[in-house]
Structures
1.
Amino acid sequence: MVDDGSPDQSGDICDQLATKDSRIQVFHKKNGGLSSARNCGLDNMKGQYVSFIDSDDYINACYFESMMSVLRTNNADIATCSISLVSTDRIENGSESCLTDRCLSGFEAANMMLKSEVGCATWGKLYSVDCIKDLRFVEGRIHEDFQSFSCISSC
């Protein structure tokens, strides 16, 4: 977990979670923006898989289990999932396609992204570390989520 200089209690919450689960490591840094925080995570990641979950995201309890199953079953590098847009008064299904029943080549995935059939944002996916270990986000760039497109097309 990366605490990017949050002015609220997020860093303390991360530290508390780390004391309860030895798999959690927390990195505190001066605020540098989303790309800087993600790069810190990439520089310090361990294990075989990585996912980017932003502070305004909510994940389902089976998020990782479901996507790990897809990756392992299909010997794939990237899994994606459907999304829902949640507001105080409603839950609305998002436009992301749920591809848990399909395995795509990099070319097919890129083609679906260009047609907006599947999102190309960095979040909402689980990546094999081998696929993105050399990826770094350009700091200060607007819409840095869309850099994940270059990773998918090169895998």
2.
Amino acid sequence: MAESIMRMVKAGAFVLVAVAAVMASYQYKISVDATYPTRTFSVDGTGDIDTAPDLATFSVTVTTNGGRNVAEVQTANTEKMNRVNAYLKEQGVASEDLKTAQYTLAPRYNYGSCVSGNCPAPAIIGYDLTQTLDVKVRESGRLGDLLSGVVENGANGVSEVRFVVDDEAAAKAEAREEAIAEAKKKAKSLAKTAGFKVGKLVTLYESSNPVMPYGMGGDMSEMSAKGGAAPMLEPGTQTTKVQVTLTYEIEN
């Protein structure tokens, strides 16, 4: 008798739990339906803004291949890089626009020949020190002269020449406005064709492509280890692209 009563209690409890789960699911569905309309449509818009770059950046490298005396290698490399740094500051490049990007000291080894399976341990014969300085030029028209000047003052490597837009946020905001305007125009046209009215804006999704350089050029082959004629570099334009997706309610 007691076991029968216990089974009935358990069965009743199971039913109550099942009913509670169903009610919770129903209440959640009502909540979702109330917050997100079921009759919606989406449109896309794209904004492209071409902007003339107002900054130039490049990296200048000083590499010293020295002997086994590390202090001498460091001193020689530091003297060269200090001359480069001083030259750039004399040309008006601010300290905040100069940043050390790399400082690498690595040994050079001599690997002897193996004889009868016996191979001698590698021996350090010297050290190579490479230091790289990232430079930002706010007067991009002077870039060619600076590239030539750093080589004349001790640099033996120049790379990563780029033209960039200083205030990318402004270009992105303008591209966003253009993209949203295009999407709104599409929404009105689609609603008119399909025979319904555009309701409230439900969601807005944005994706932005990286700023892509266009038209950057210049041949640096005329620059030798002793410097040379300043290269001609064209900044061209850069394109900021923003894509948006707008979702609206459908009204009759």
